[in-house]
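Figure 2 data, in text form.
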Amino acid sequence: MSTLGIFHHDYTDLRAGIDDNGQPWFAAADVAKFLGHASAKDMVRSLDDDEKGGRLVPTPGGEQELTVVTEAGLYRAIMLRQTGRMAEAQATAIKAFQRWVTHEVLPSIRRTGSYSAPVQSDDEIVARALQITAARVQALEAKVAEDAPKVLFADSVATSQTAILVGDLAKILKGNGMDIGGTRLFELLRNDGYLIRRQGTDRNMPTQKAMELGLFRVKETAVTHSDGHVTISKTPKVTGKGQAYFVNRYIGQPTRQAVAS
């Protein structure tokens, strides 16, 4: 069973310890939270097998297995987490965590085998609690401000009955900061599995997945030719739900080089 310690940082705690071989480990869920991942599963998926694992730790309910990352896994997770495209507040918090781990936590573990926090007076404990509360409020306010444009857009179009052409969706994305046009958007949607890629009469039609998600509808138009025969022209149109979906998916993402299909 591994030795478990709790490292206090701002308004979140980091569980860590030393295994039977004297090697540091860190709770994957806590590291993922510090680095802004949606879940520990998302973070450890990118790590090699020798950079992650499980440790038995004592809890009030008995021993439990905890998903952890090794010291190498921690460094890898930090290096993989790019802050350049994040909101400034989140990027600053992650960089502060990185510095705290490398300048305080790891040196303390190597010196003493644990993290030694200074003894705090009652006044210091109250001050820290107030600081934690203020930090949480500030983080929530920043998140609300960051998400506001996206939420407003989603509310305005998600229930809309008006479906638009893919080219018009490209204009919306471009107006929200994505460098893309109609041709490139068709290619992106094909590569991401929303439109059919194969050559044929159904090329650029919505895939089964996209239709099941309600992202498109297909407009059919009867075309009468000069010799009198009639054919059906099909055009994919993006529903209101689809418009909100693709804005949420693509806005803020790095510009991607589409692969020729």
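Caption note: The longest strand covers residues 62-70.
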